[in-house]
Amino acid sequence: MAQVKEGDPTTWDVAGIYRTPVDDPNFDREETLEKFMTKYLMPYIKVSKVYGVTIGSYINYDGFYYPSGRYIGNASGYCILLSNNVLLFTSIGTSGCVTNPDGSCATPVTFGNFIFYVDINGFSKPNTYGKDVFMLEFNLTNKQLGFYHRGQGKNTLLRDCGTDGGSTLCGRLIYIDGWQIKDDYPWF
After folding, report:
1. What is the mean pLDDT of the chain?
2. For residues 97 and 61, is the Cβ–Cβ distance under 8 A?
3. Which among 123, 129, 120, 119 is positioned nearest to 67, based on CA atoms?
4. Are 49 and 135 in contact, with CB atoms under 8 Å apart?
5. 8 Å CB contact between 111 and 96
6. What pLDDT score was predicted for residue 33?
7. pLDDT greater than 70 at residue 6
8. Which residues contact 121 (CB under 8 A, 6 or more apart)?
9. β-strands 71-73, 64-65: how paired?
10. Strands (E), the chain
């Protein structure tokens, strides 16, 4: 609906964040998140409460967990509670990095897409990826909203969804299965 009203997402006020250096002193992350949410998302959904840019513990949200029960960390970003008690945190993801000798990312280099952390039962537990927390991203390059790691095939999703490292893939699996949690879903 926002695209119909506001036009191609690459022309939106916040579209310029893509590939903005993380250390750019002129980039205001909080202002960008607020602008994106209030102009392009919130007019089209039923919002019960706006927390703004916050950290989960400030609003008594426990944080995120992996399927193993290991604590990932506190949620943060622009937060809203929907009228159906779904809690939504939106942040700006990074892409590219300066790598360590072992190939791991040492320092994020540029901002990438908007990342959505959706907790379908709000403040209630378990706050676990693949059970009640799912990730989506709004890709400013290809102008799409989709599940995190949306390029994975079903076999990979089935194999990885129930693992700590692959639990961000679970929403994609439900989507591929026609918005159903089938008998082969890793949590059964």
Report:
1. 88
2. no
3. 129
4. no
5. no
6. 92
7. yes
8. 85, 86, 132
9. antiparallel
10. 47-55, 64-65, 71-73, 76-82, 87-99, 105-119, 133-139, 144-147
Cis peptide before 9 (omega within 30 of 0): no
Which residue would you say has higher pLDDT here, 35 or 20?
Answer: 35
Element (H, E) at 174: helix 170-176
Q: What is the pTM of this model?
A: 0.87
Q: Count of alpha carbons within 13 Å of 43, Cβ hemisphere only?
A: 11
Torsion, CA 61, CA 63, CA 65, CA 70, rounded to 10: -120
pLDDT class of 150 with cuts at 50, 70, 90:
low
Q: Which amino acid is at 144?
A: Q
Give the pair of three-digit tokens for residue 31. Answer: 């202002």
Distance CA 45, CA 43 (A): 6
Structure tokens at 76: 């943060």
**Is beta strand 133-139 parallel, antiparallel or unpaired with respect to 87-99?**
unpaired
Tokens for 136?
């989506």
